[in-house]
Amino acid sequence: MTEDGITVGEFREADGAENWRVLAEGACAFFRTGSFAESARLVDAMSRLEGVADHPPDVDVRRDGVTVRLITIADDWYGPSRRDLDLARRISATAKALGFAADPSALQSFLVIPGAPDTADVMPFWRAILGYEPRDDSPDEDLVDPHMRGPSFWFEPMDEPRPDGGGAIHVAVWVPPEEAEARVAAALAAGGRLVRDQFAPSWWTLADAAGNEADIATTTGRD
Questions:
Q1: Can you tell me the distance from the alpha carbon of 157 to that of 11, in angstroms, rounded to the nearest whole number?
Q2: Most Cβ neighbours (<10 Å): which of 50, 110, 134, 142?
């Protein structure tokens, strides 16, 4: 772990982190606004915070709010840090001063998980197709968008190849822990079926009527 790195649990339990949720890749918050101009005003105020230029957040600006992601990336670390926690507190204070409330229920992140009997055989193909790069701390397992825009690809060995020797892809939707069971229930009510839940509350695997699988995932139990 990089010297500044902290666990998901340490971030979650820290004072001043109430607006934030650690998802698949970093600590995230969504601050609801009333217009694009208000969203831009919040981003401008964030840009003026001391030290933000040295460790800038990833920001998505929309007409109804601003999503902020904080993450520390090193050769041996890809997750939250004390520097992220400090900035998260100051961003929350800035949003509060401007009258913008956080809404953690609006947060989620998305992953694509290709499976193969030997993931090393297929990773070069996906790297070429996507223009992605290996993740610094797990280069043999994961590919990430160097611009931090698209979903990451986490490669998973298959215990048993399909009869034709082919692979399989499923997706993972990461949500705040308190939102997970409602999301699972909604998927079941919409015609899905539960494939496995022995790893819950870290993740549930569900499938649609055609057998396509998706995980509802959280950071619970992943320290």
A1: 30
A2: 142
Amino acid identity of residue 185, one-letter, is A
Q: What is the CATH number of domain 8-106?
A: 3.30.1360.20
Lowest model confidence (mean pLDDT) among 28-32, 145-149, 179-183: 145-149
Find where tokens 């949003």 sit: 95
Q: What is the dihedral of CA 92, 109, 154, 166, to 10 degrees?
A: 180
Where does 109-217 sit in CATH, by number? 3.10.180.10
> What pLDDT sits at residue 88?
98
The lowest-confidence range among 12-26, 28-42, 128-142, 153-167 is 153-167
Q: Nearest CA to 117 among 166, 170, 62?
A: 166
Distance CA(94)–CA(100), nearest Å, equals 9
CA atoms of 94 and 170, how far apart (whole Å):
38
- The answer to whether the CB of 101 falls within 8 A of the CB of 29 is no
Total number of residues shown for the chain: 223
Residue 160 has pLDDT above 80, yes or no: no
pLDDT digits 0-9 by tens, 169-192: 999 999 999 999 999 999 999 999
Going from N- to C-terminal start, the domains of the chain cover 8-106, 109-217
Q: What's the confidence (pLDDT) of residue 179?
A: 97
Residue 198 DSSP symbol: T
Q: Is 51 within 8 Å of 64 (Cβ atoms)?
A: no
